[in-house]
Design goal:
Elements (H helix, E strand, L loop, with lengths): L21 E3 H6 L4 H7 L7 E4 L2 E3 L7 H12 L25 E2 L1 H8 L13 E6 L10 E6 L6 E3 L2 E3 L2 H9 L5 H13 L5 H10 L6 H28 L6 E7 L5 E9 L4 E5 L8 H17 L3 E5 L1 H6 L1 H14 L10 E4 L1
Parallel strand pairs: 5-6, 11-12
Antiparallel strand pairs: 1-3, 2-3, 4-5, 7-8, 9-10, 9-13, 10-11
Helix pairs in contact: 4-5, 5-6, 5-7, 6-8, 8-11
Length: 345
Amino acid sequence: MNHNTPLSPRPLHHLSEVHRRVLTAAQLKAHGVSSAELTEQCRPGGPWQQILPGVLLLHPGPPTSEERLHAVLTYAARESAPGVPAQPGVESPHRPVYAEAMITGLAALTLHGFTSAPPLLSIERIDVLVPRLRRVRSTGCARIVRTPSLPTPRQVTGVPIAPVPRALADAVSELPDAGAVRRLLTEAVRGGHCEAASVVRELNNAKLLSRPHVVDAVDSLLAEGRAIAEDRLYRMVHEHGLPDPVWNVDLRLPGGPYLGGLDAYWPEQAVAVELDTRAPRQDDDALWSEYARKRETLERLGITVVHITPKKLRDSLEQQAAVVRTALMASGDRDPAAYVVVLPR
């Protein structure tokens, strides 16, 4: 395969990098390549080929995985405004800017570093996320995925990719294999890519929680997320020198009603920590009401309740430790709490 084939009577010397070997017919014409020359270069066995409608690959032979990504983005991206180059030129030698398009689904997960996602070259159709009203259709190796509002993409080697929760939802929507869904969701949380709640929120938005194999995987995901959050809570207490609490307990009034379960409790200071591992599902409002009711009841009895989310434990462990330490130190300034019975959960 000869990648040094002359491009036209007016060679485009600045197209030396891989991502510059993918151009639209309109961009080539802007560089002085005539329609007749385009037709000649793209003849069977010629030096160029059309990889997607209006998108050309400037060498013969199969495209690389990077070229496929850039071809899909070039095809799906909104055309740039007059005077704003969508592709690099002599004056703008940087990577192209793809307006209103980003890679999502399995290809995005591979770029995020998921070991349970397939290699790029084995992905037959690459998912690309565009605004809902964009007039572009799925074809060839490009599968168009529409959304009312685009998330902020991450850049990986010059390729804009959807955040992990969105990419997961788009991948799961096309995966009937329960094992593959479970592996991807588990790796998302275990690998520290995101929190379980953000994944479930995207799956819920995509209306995927009605599929039994997705619900099963989500239940495993939430259990995984809670286990990781509990482990971080233990680390927070020990690494930041907090006194040891009693772990995973139920509180009850003497001879009275059950008050609720807590992840950590300091009886002498009447301070409790509760992990907020709610996932946004259909029953979210009811669950939040239960959290709020329990907190209100405990605080009426003089018990300070600190709510901590898994995300806060992941992103700001020291800050969360300071919040708990402050609550413990402030206990001496409060009226004594009501006596409660502490039972192992």
